[in-house]
């Protein structure tokens, strides 16, 4: 049984956080899932595509779960530990895994993909996405929305003054890049962290929630979090997600 603060911290601070598999949190944290079912909708679109690109694929977990991949499937990733994981999962499926950096330009010629996807991208490069899409092709993405997990941000950093990503801004950016938004929906979802180790693991993995997070830097707040959970039960937060699908008009010249 995991009881003491020191035991929880030691375990959570030493486990690998490579990739986007959150199964280490099973039994320790929960998060509601969006009602639209991104993986199911992604699988439908992949089954119909001829050439697909998955941007910021992480460890390739989501793409590897797609039953039928297009004849040409490419994934990009910038973080070396994730690249290794993605290659081990995706190359046996016939997909290419390409290393890129954390800024545009995408390393592909224009108009080659009829489907571009990304799940929880750090940044969406709308102009580059529009460039590599074929006329009639679509960008399909689930993204982090405004005020996501702000309860954790406020706890560690103090009251927030920014809402983060905004679906309306995403629509405007897509349209500015010449894309037509055909679907846009958003939801807020309950999260529960049942011990301080779950909080540590989450903040080590999702590094933009509390930038520069480390156990040593936030020891006082982590001890406070541990006492709070011990006294009152799970720490409750709310994630924010939005789904966006944008199409390159068929009449555009590639």
TrEMBL record:
Signal peptide: none
Keywords attached to this entry: Methyltransferase, Transferase
GO molecular function: methyltransferase activity
Top-level taxon in the UniProt lineage: Bacteria
Example GO BP: methylation
Keyword Methyltransferase annotated: yes
PANTHER family: METHYLTRANSFERASE (PTHR43460), METHYLTRANSFERASE TYPE 11 DOMAIN-CONTAINING PROTEIN (PTHR43460:SF1)
Name this polypeptide is given: Class I SAM-dependent methyltransferase
Species of origin: Nonomuraea insulae
């Amino acid at each position: 049984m995991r009881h003491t603060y020191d035991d929880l911290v030691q375990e959570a601070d030493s486990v690998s956080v490579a990739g986007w598999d959150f199964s280490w949190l099973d039994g320790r944290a929960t998060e509601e899932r969006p009602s639209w079912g991104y993986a199911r909708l992604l699988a439908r679109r992949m089954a119909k595509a001829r050439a697909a690109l998955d941007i910021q694929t992480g460890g390739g977990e989501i793409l590897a779960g797609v039953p039928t991949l297009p004849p040409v499937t490419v994934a990009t990733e910038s973080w070396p530990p994730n690249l290794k994981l993605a290659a081990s999962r995706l190359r046996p499926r016939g997909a290419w895994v390409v290393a890129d950096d954390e800024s545009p330009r995408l390393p592909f010629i224009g108009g080659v993909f009829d489907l571009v996807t990304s799940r929880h991208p750090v940044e969406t490069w709308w102009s580059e996405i529009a460039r590599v899409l074929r006329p009639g092709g679509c960008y399909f993405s689930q993204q982090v929305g405004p005020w996501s997990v702000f309860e954790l941000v406020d706890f560690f950093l103090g009251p927030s003054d920014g809402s983060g990503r905004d679906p309306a801004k995403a629509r405007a950016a897509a349209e500015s890049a010449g894309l037509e938004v055909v679907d846009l929906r958003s939801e807020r979802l309950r999260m529960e962290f049942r011990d301080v180790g779950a909080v540590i693991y989450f903040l080590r993995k999702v590094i933009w929630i509390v930038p520069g997070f480390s156990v040593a830097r936030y020891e006082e707040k982590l001890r406070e979090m541990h006492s709070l959970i011990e006294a009152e039960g799970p720490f409750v937060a709310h994630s924010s997600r939005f789904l966006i699908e944008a199409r390159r008009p068929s009449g555009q010249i590639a």
